[in-house]
Structure formats: C-alpha cells, structure tokens
Amino acid sequence: MSGITTHILDVTRGRPAARVPIMLEVLGDSHTWTELGRGKTDNDGRLKTLLPAGHQLRAADYRLTFDTATYFRGLEAETFYPLVQVMFTIRDPSQNYHVPLLLSAYGYSTYRGS
Which region, left, alpha or beta, applies to residue 31 given φ > 0 means left and ψ of -120 to 50 means alpha? Predict the structure, then answer.
C-alpha cells in the first residue's frame, strides 16, 4: 500500500464513488508540479496505489486532482465542480496519509483520515 491513499463517498447517492480518475502530484523545488501517479477508484471508491512501487515519500506539498466531471457524466448527472483539487503538506514522510473526499454534484469536503 502506498503512503498516500484516498476514498470517495458520493453523499447524494449514499455509496462509494467508483471509477473516478485521480492524479497525484508533488510540488518541486522549482515550484512546478510533477505527476507521481494516477488511477481510478475501485468499486468501493478507494484508490490505494497512487504511488509507484518503492516510491519514498518526502516532506513536501502534494496535490490530488479528482476528475469529478467524468464520474458525474457516467451517472448522466450535472456537476458544479468538474475537478476537485486537494492540496496538503506532508511533514513526516514515515506516516501514511489518507485523504477522503465526500462528494455531491454541488459540494464537497475533505479531511485527513486514518
């Protein structure tokens, strides 16, 4: 399991959000974002393999981009937020970081999970 994971719950439907494309990036020393990994949530709304095998986290700023437009288009539903970007800071790379997203077509929230 990678040191950064995520989970999306569609609070309108009361179920996990499956097949949501997600990209993970890190902010480099030159203040540019570099992609570290990408994938889609599974049927339980989880993505556990954002980082390449053997990748070591470092203290830095990271960004998750959730392609919510693709998800809602698959449901034949509109959304006000076609992308959700969540930036967070890792100070202790030895820990695991879980960043859940609670999602609806017209709102979202996030928190640091366990």
Answer: left
